[in-house]
Specification:
Blueprint (H helix, E strand, L loop, with lengths): L1 H19 L4 H13 L6 H14 L4 H10 L6 H12 L4 H14 L4 H14 L2 H13 L6 H13 L3 H10 L5 H13 L3 H13 L6 H14 L2 H13 L6 H13 L3 H10 L5 H13 L3 H13 L6 H14 L2 H15 L5 H13 L3 H9 L7 H14 L2 H13 L5 H13 L3 H14 L7 E6 L2 E6 L8 H17 L30 H12 L6 E5 L5 H13 L4 E4 L4 E5 L2 E2 L6
Parallel strand pairs: 3-4
Antiparallel strand pairs: 1-2, 1-3, 4-5, 5-6
Helix pairs in contact: 1-3, 3-4, 3-5, 4-5, 5-6, 5-7, 6-7, 7-8, 7-9, 8-9, 9-10, 9-11, 10-11, 11-12, 11-13, 12-13, 13-14, 13-15, 14-15, 15-16, 15-17, 16-17, 17-18, 17-19, 18-19, 19-20, 19-21, 20-21, 21-22, 21-23, 22-23, 23-24, 23-25, 24-25, 25-26, 27-28, 27-29
Bound molecules: zinc ion (2 copies).
One zinc ion binds next to loops.
């Protein structure tokens, strides 16, 4: 008996060793054959290990795992069920994991792992009701204080769009570890609730919870989205203090934060001190300079990246093309576009074609832009036609503008914003018929309104304004200041631009704040507030959810001159650096 046991133990060990080197279904079936010929297929330890290996480790072997599970394991125990649930939770069919979990409940009791794996499946299959059901079972089985289960429950709720439920689970946890705090931050970030993500950190500080690299990366990403530079800088200090600057992830997150907050010098500073850099690091610099319209610097970093022997990817080229397009480097842009596939074997995606259309369009080469779309095999992508239409507006080209709109209509995706673009072109071409046709289309279609807002960070607080906002506690002061600012801007040459489309036509469209005359756009309020609350010479940084309208653009230029302030506006599409009465976009946006 003893020798039998010993020989089984040594065979079991041999099988484990074999499994470790196994990376294909072919090898796996050989091992399985060995197990069967040695009469070990009913041995619980061995069959369990084999099953787990099939289900989880070798890709494509889930059917094999099912075979083992249903025919070779007589009374599956929790660990066997877990292997199946886990295997399917990572597979293209996560719903199968949920089926195994349901079945399991009739035969065996779930444990921490079962819950975690099935929640992962709920997360991937996007089934919120199931998530709630699992939550109930977690309670009934007494796992409501299990920090791992609760953290997975939070994630699953958040991914399924119930971030409030996630927060409730978090609040009710009797004990939290750093992973659960970090998860709460990332739940909010993924839901686009970046303010709330930063608020979690305030709570962490109050409760004296430490932090790690993941916390920093999560918070820095929230700062990047919000354009909250001051808070980001405080995070940078913290990273230095706590010794996280050696982490390439933290470094990358810092670069991204500085770039998205419009502080490229800050990004460069972090970049230069990094001892280790990966493709993300380089991409962050290239994309950073690219979206700021500084193509030459983007190219410089690309060349350095090549010298460092780092392989570029499709994001690298997006950054490069964007930079070339905004700086008018047409030939270079075309070269890079071709280089992508010819030298690096990267197939250009829709976004790359979009950049190329924009590159030609901005430079006034509208025929070429049209040709790119027609030969791109992406003729049915509305984004490309819309990009072309915007370029036609810049260069006032009626013919190609009409072609672009016709295609948008053909694709069934034309919207009020497109009609406004073409109406503007007609207006400048003094084509009254065209303008009135567009007005009719706008009226008929109705307008999807996106409320415009802007925010500005003053100190460590973010202040958000909407159009004609009267909700700020210091509203009166802000409007009084705005009057003074408008006067000063006017003395320097600012003239309010009349809007082409009357306020009665529509209130707001999603491509541009519509400039209804008389109303006060959110960024004007943010600028007035910023001027009132920051010391002279301080740069103002504003984030806006829509594109800047012509009037606000001109206003901001004259304010930068009149008050001798640098003003950086990040709108939905790009950055505008206003300084001394000029904007970095050279009035093309
Ligand atoms: Zn505006
Ligand atoms: Zn601009």
């Amino acid at each position: 008996m003893l020798t039998n046991h010993a020989s089984q133990a040594s065979k079991s060990k041999a099988i484990l060793t074999l499994l470790q080197g196994c990376n294909s279904l072919r090898k796996l079936s050989k091992i399985h054959a060995y197990v069967i010929t040695n009469g070990l297929h009913h041995h619980p330890d061995i069959s369990g290990k084999l099953l787990n290996f099939c289900a989880v480790s070798v890709s494509g072997s889930l059917p094999y795992a099912q075979l083992l599970f249903h025919h070779h394991i007589q009374n599956p125990e929790t660990q066997h069920w877990n292997s199946m649930i886990r295997g399917f939770s990572q597979s293209p069919s996560p719903l199968q994991a949920i089926s195994y979990y349901n079945l399991m409940l009739s035969y065996s009791s779930p444990d921490t792992f079962s819950f975690s794996f099935v929640l992962k499946a709920c997360e991937r299959a996007n089934v919120e009701p199931k998530c709630r059901e699992v939550h109930g079972t977690v309670f009934r089985c007494g796992y409501q204080n299990d920090v791992v289960v609760c953290t997975n429950l939070m994630k699953s709720y958040a991914v399924n769009g119930s971030v409030d439920h996630a927060r409730r689970v978090f609040d009710e946890m009797s004990e939290r570890d750093l992973v659960s705090w970090n998860s709460m931050i990332s739940c909010y970030s993924q839901a686009g609730l970046h303010h709330e993500a930063l608020n979690v950190y305030s709570l962490m500080r109050r409760e004296n919870v430490g932090l790690d690299g993941f916390t920093l990366v999560g918070l820095l990403s929230a700062c990047a989205h919000l354009g909250a530079l001051n808070t980001g800088v405080a995070m940078h200090e913290l990273a230095r203090e706590k010794g996280f600057m050696g982490s390439v992830y933290v470094g990358n997150a810092l670069i991204d934060m500085y770039a998205k907050c419009g502080d490229l010098d800050g990004a460069l500073c972090v970049f230069e001190r990094m001892r280790k850099r990966d493709a993300f690091t380089w991409n962050s610099m290239i994309v950073g300079y690219g979206v700021h319209g500084r193509g030459n610097e983007a190219i410089y970093f690309f060349e350095k990246m090549m010298m460092a022997g780092v392989q570029p990817n499709s994001i690298t080229f997006l950054g490069l093309l964007c930079g070339c397009s905004h700086q008018g480097l047409v030939e270079k842009g075309v070269d890079y576009f071709h280089m992508m596939s010819s030298r690096f074997n990267i197939k250009p995606g829709i976004k790359h074609y979009g950049c190329l259309v924009d590159l030609f369009g901005r430079a006034g080469k509208l025929e070429k832009a049209l040709h790119v779309i027609r030969t791109s095999r992406a003729q049915d992508d509305p984004v490309l036609w819309r990009t072309l239409l915007s370029s036609c507006k810049i260069h006032m080209n009626v013919d190609i503008g009409e072609v672009a709109l016709k295609n948008l209509i053909r694709l069934g995706s034309s919207n009020a914003g497109d009609y406004v673009l073409l109406a503007t072109i007609y207006f400048k071409a003094k084509d009254a018929d065209g303008v009135s046709r567009m007005r009719k289309l706008i009226k008929n279609q109705g307008v999807r309104t996106t409320p415009g807002w802007s925010w500005i960070e003053v100190g460590d607080q973010i202040h958000k304004f909407v159009v004609d906002d009267k909700s700020h506690p210091d509203t009166e002061e802000i409007y009084t200041k705005l009057e003074v600012v408008v006067q000063q801007a006017a003395l320097n040459g600012y003239v309010q631009e009349e809007s082409l489309i009357r306020a009665s036509d529509f209130t707001s469209i999603d491509t541009e704040c519509s400039g209804t005359s008389g109303s006060c756009h959110s960024e004007k309020l943010a600028i007035a507030f910023g001027l009132a609350r920051t010391p002279e010479g301080t740069c103002l940084r504003i984030v806006k959810n829509l594109r800047v309208c012509r009037d606000c653009h001109s206003f901001t230029k004259f304010v930068s001159l009149a008050f001798n302030r640098e003003i950086i506006v990040r709108d939905r599409v790009r950055f505008h650096h206003f300084k001394g009465g000029l904007c970095s976009c050279k009035d093309y946006w």
